[in-house]
Write a sequence for this structure.
């Protein structure tokens, strides 16, 4: 299972070393088997990379929160996918709802980013999800649209070695997570839909994470479902004290 902590626009340089050392020690002590990754703000990737490099056999990888659609040039404030190669980044989040909403990222931009991530041999984590609580059929229609643009722009094999994070926007940061059975149904729908487009693709090979107010209290309700393969954690990933209990509980499944 894949457990990712997305720090968003949070964190300070002086806390990074302590966070990774403490988290890694706990993962070692409890012999954690799941795949753990942290997504710090871009400006802290360098520090995180250096700290992790100095931890022997660290099993924590790095995830980037975003890239630009350009590789270099006059694009003030941006980060290119190529720059991330310097920091041993493994996953790159694409199309997080906060970027779609606050930075006007439409499906075309998201597709371009997804394409660049794949082309540069990183693993994309494509975020999809409906903005308001809806009937499940409507939510599926919305997600289908978000997936279709990727398939159209990047080809029908796009989701090989890719990850999808299903994050109903209304559940993010709200304290109200979605119903695990509802999420399981949506994940099943996505897996089936993609394996119909790419017939050689085994639907069980596609990792789909759930994200939206996951905590120590509800993580097992999600991960015990057949089609939920991991979680993307926002708020609760900021402190080892709230993140590690989630990791430990997910490892017990
Ligand atoms: C997220 O931003 O991807 C997220 C899931 O946040 P939170 O866990 O805080 O709801």
């Amino acid at each position: 299972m894949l457990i990712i902590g997305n720090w968003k626009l949070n964190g300070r340089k002086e806390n990074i070393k302590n966070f990774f050392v403490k988290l890694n020690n706990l993962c070692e002590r409890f012999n954690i088997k799941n795949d753990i990754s942290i997504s710090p703000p871009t400006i802290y990737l360098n520090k995180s990379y250096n700290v992790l490099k100095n931890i022997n056999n660290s099993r924590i990888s790095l995830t980037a929160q975003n890239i630009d659609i350009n590789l270099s040039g006059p694009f003030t404030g941006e980060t290119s996918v190529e720059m991330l190669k310097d920091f041993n980044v493994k996953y790159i989040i694409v199309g997080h709802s906060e970027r779609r909403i606050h930075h006007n990222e439409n499906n075309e931009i998201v597709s371009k980013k997804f394409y660049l991530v794949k082309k540069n041999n990183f693993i994309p984590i494509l975020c999809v999800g409906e903005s308001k609580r809806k009937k499940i059929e409507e939510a599926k229609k919305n997600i289908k649209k978000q997936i279709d643009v990727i398939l159209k722009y990047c080809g029908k094999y796009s989701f090989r070695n890719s990850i999808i994070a299903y994050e109903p926007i209304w559940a993010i940061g709200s304290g109200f997570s979605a119903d695990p059975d509802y999420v399981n149904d949506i994940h099943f729908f996505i897996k089936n839909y993609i394996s119909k487009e790419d017939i050689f693709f085994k639907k069980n090979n596609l990792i789909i994470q759930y994200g939206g107010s996951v905590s120590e209290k509800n993580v097992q309700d999600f991960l015990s479902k057949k089609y939920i393969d991991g979680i993307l954690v926002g708020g609760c990933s900021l402190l080892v004290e709230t993140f590690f209990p989630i990791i430990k509980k997910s490892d017990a499944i």
Q: What stands out?
A: Residues 2-251 form a domain with the TIM Barrel fold (CATH 3.20.20.70). The chain has a mean pLDDT of 95.
